[in-house]
Amino acid sequence: MVPQLYHLIEHTADTGFEVRGNTREQVFEAAALAFFHIMWRLGHHKESQPEIIEVTGSDLKELLVNFLEEFLYLYDAKGFICKKLTVQSVTETKIYAKAWLQEFNDDKDHELLGVKAVTYHQLYIGEKDHKWLAQVFLDI
Amino acid sequence: MNDFTIHNLKQIDQYRWLLPKQGKMRTDGLLFLDRSLLEHIKNDKSITQVANVACLPGIVGKSLAMPDMHQGYGFPIGGVAAFDPDQGIVSPGGVGYDINCGVRLLRTALEKEEIATRIDALVNCLFTNIPSGVGSKQRYLKLNKQELKKVLETGASWAIRNGYGSNDDLLHIEEGGCLGWADPDTVSDRALDRGQAQLGTLGSGNHFVEVGFVDKIFDDKLASGIGLFKNQVTIIIHTGSRGLGHQVCGDYIRLMQNASRKYGIDLPDRELCCAPIHSPEGEKYLSAMAAAANFAFANRQFITEEVRRTFEHVLGRGVKKLGLELVYDVCHNIAKFETHEVNGQQQEVVVHRKGATRAFPAKHPKVPDAYRETGQPILIPGDMGRYSYVLVGTEKALQETFGSTCHGAGRLMSRHAAKKIAKGHNVTAELAEMGVTVKGAGRATLVEEIPQAYKDVEDVVRVVHEAGIANKVARLRPLGVIKG
After folding, report:
1. Which one, of B69, B68, B36, lies nearest residue B51 by Cα?
2. Interval B108-125: pLDDT, tens
3. pTM exceeds 0.90
4. Contact assignment for B70 to A12 by CB distance below 8 Å
5. Inter-chain CB proximity B271 and A113 less than 8 Å
6. What is the distance in angstroms between the CA of the first residue and the CA of the last residue of chain B?
7. Which of B316, B121, B122, B298 is nearest to B209 (CA)?
8. Which stretches of B253-355 are assigned E, i.e. beta strand?
9. A103 vs B: CB within 8 A
10. Do A114 and B133 touch (CB under 8 A)?
11. Facing B253 at nearest CB: one of A13, A75, A120
12. Measured between beta carbons, which residues in chain B are less than 8 angstroms from residue A73?
């Protein structure tokens, strides 16, 4: 079970969040779910067919930024939101995930925050005492 | 590098603070602040960020910060830095994610009494005609990629060729509304995908269109020189390059992470990733950034025309009769090739302005003929309840800050804190009591953008005026605002 809680970090002009997980996969999944929770409040959608999301990066930090940016792109360019997500594997440079995407529906879905980008500002991802921790700041 | 604090600063005069070169810094930092504004930044990392910028290769002159400075990503917001084209670097973090975010000001021949009963209709109609809010898109205007590339190549003039404005508008836009070195082929498909349906949309956050009036004139000669008079109805448009620009920045931050390693550039902060200006990566970024900047110019031009059509429709008078003319359009997130005096010699440099506005003086060759005698108009928006300022550039700005000045008020409160304060308040009703009709796409944005969440822009403007890096011309008060 992925811990779905996240901690919102806010400074004057910054918005970020911190997530934890028992494994690398869990912390990526938790980061994506936190990201979705900050951006949208979604209504009920019928379950769709999952799509494979495959993202690469030169290290874990870049991988995390690219992974979240993938969903930002899907939303901003294609109008897709993500209702459900499972991260299947994460290596140092590649992530595979299954995402249940839906088209954003003006009648039941709400946008909460306009995210411009996922940044490297104070970005952190790492393992400590067998727990994974990640911190991400967003450009609003 | 260690964190720098206000204790590292040496006061030069009432409005100037020196951050002396130390450690890996290649030059001094210079901050334009008064004591009260200094209080606002003492708990953030913006002074360290000024020092970090001073560490970058090829920096020319000082690492500068304007009085609205606060912590940004990589560069501080309010940061200005110039780099030598041969020795220096270009950094996407020195421009920001919203490439060519900027402000334009329109004037009218109307006095505020003439629209007093029509302001609600104007605001409602603007809100209908200009898509705004998070993820705002054009319903009927989706450009194909070929056409979009033309926008990226030609900027505001694309809009004009397609019936959105007149050639006269181009004379009143920084760089004529087009950065000539743009290359659309350096813009990724993903960025194009994001921009296809976003031309002429406002976006969210602090972006807005505001109908207001001139409530105070500080200098009669300058005001009449730029066509402003007391009680005159004005319109401000604040937006940028939307998702297209955000994606360009993100794409090139990714590319520059590797480029910084490749060129052996020691980075104090990953968001400062950069490449030599004339490296393939540097040139590619500058071409893509210019393309995104051109999209932003076209975007503001497009919205300008929607404003004109809305005024015509609501007030039943033609644009000519309404006198709806563009005063000026300035960029506040940009990197540009400009010629400046460095050590007594004219030199080409790449000036990064991140949350800072160009402020060229009277008679500067880049200032359009209309403002040869006054200096370039500068627009400094405040929060949605208070006021905005019109300034002009000065010789001193040219000498001290590569012709740059502040760009806005800057946040005082986090979004969460703003929400907490606004709890139980009807923001729209309270603003209405203050004489401002507001229409926002989402309550969330309205609440996060309450006036109390921002510094008083007057405090920022006072510093640039007193320090001589801009001159106050007029103050504008809002009557109606549409927020993203």
Report:
1. B69
2. 999 999 999 999 999 999
3. yes
4. yes
5. no
6. 39
7. B122
8. 275-276, 325-331, 333-342, 345-354
9. no
10. yes
11. A120
12. 190, 193-194, 247
Answer whether residue B373 shows pLDDT above 90.
yes
Q: Give the whole-angstrom CA distance, residue B47 versus residue B75.
A: 10
Least CA distance to B194: which residue of chain A? A77
pLDDT of residue B478: 96
Which is the catalytic residue, given B407, B416, B425, B465? B407
Contact A10 B414 (CB under 8 A): yes
In the prediction, which pLDDT does B148 show? 97
Look at residue A2 in the predicted model and tell me its pLDDT. 46
Q: Among residues A128, A60, A136, which one has the least CA distance to residue A91?
A: A60
Query: Which member of B133, B271, B410 has the closest CB to residue A119?
Result: B271
Q: Which residue has the tokens 């939307």?
A: B242
| Amino acid at site A18 | E
Architecture of domain A45-139: 3-Layer(bab) Sandwich (3.55)
Cβ separation B270–A61 shorter than 8 A: yes
Report how far residue B124's alpha carbon sits from residue B134's, in angstroms, rounded to the nearest whole number. Answer: 18
Per-residue pLDDT tens for A17-59?
999 999 999 999 999 999 999 999 899 988 889 999 999 999 9
**Residue B148 in contact with residue B192, Cβ under 8 Å?**
yes
Annotated catalytic residue B407:
yes
d(CA A127, CA A121): 19
Q: What is the pLDDT of residues B209-259, one digit of tens each?
A: 999 999 999 999 999 999 999 999 999 999 999 999 999 999 999 999 999
| CATH architecture of the domain with range B6-483 | Alpha-Beta Complex (3.90)
Bridging pattern class, strands B471-483 and B437-440: parallel
Domain boundaries, chain A: 45-139
**Maximal CA-CA distance, chain B:** 64
